[in-house]
Amino acid sequence: MTVKTTLSFTDRHHRFLTDRVGEGVFASQSAAVAAALEQMIRDEEERDIALGAMADEIRTRLRTPRSEYVDADEAFAAARTSIGAAREA
């Protein structure tokens, strides 16, 4: 189903749309706007997936017993050594 609507654009946006249509990148300004909206939808879906995966990982880590925690000094020792060497050089 197609719905007709009225949109307003800044001069910059209108010029961009007009140029892309003129170059044949899009068949019409409506097609360009539809492509931009589809990209926004995909971006939002990907963001939701990434946030969900991060939330799952956080939940998993929250269930990790303290006995399995990695000591921060041990975890970052190699990085601190590399940084110290780089600063001395």
Which labels suit this protein?
single chain; 89 residues; mainly alpha
Helix content: over 70%
- Uncertain spans: none
Question: What would you report as the Rg, rounded to the nearest angstrom?
Answer: 25 Å
Span between termini: 66 Å
Question: How many separate domains?
Answer: 1
Structural class: mainly alpha
Percentage of β-strand residues: under 5%
Number of strands: 0
SSE succession: HHH
Note the main sheet.
none
What's the overall geometry?
elongated
Number of separate helices = 3
Mean pLDDT: 95
What does it look like?
The structure is a single chain. The chain has 89 residues and is mainly α. The chain has one domain. Helix content is 71%, strand content 0%. It contains three helices and no strands. The chain is elongated.
Describe the structure in brief.
The chain is an all-alpha fold and 89 residues long. It contains 3 helices and no strands.
SSE order and pairing:
Elements: H1 11-22, H2 29-62, H3 72-88
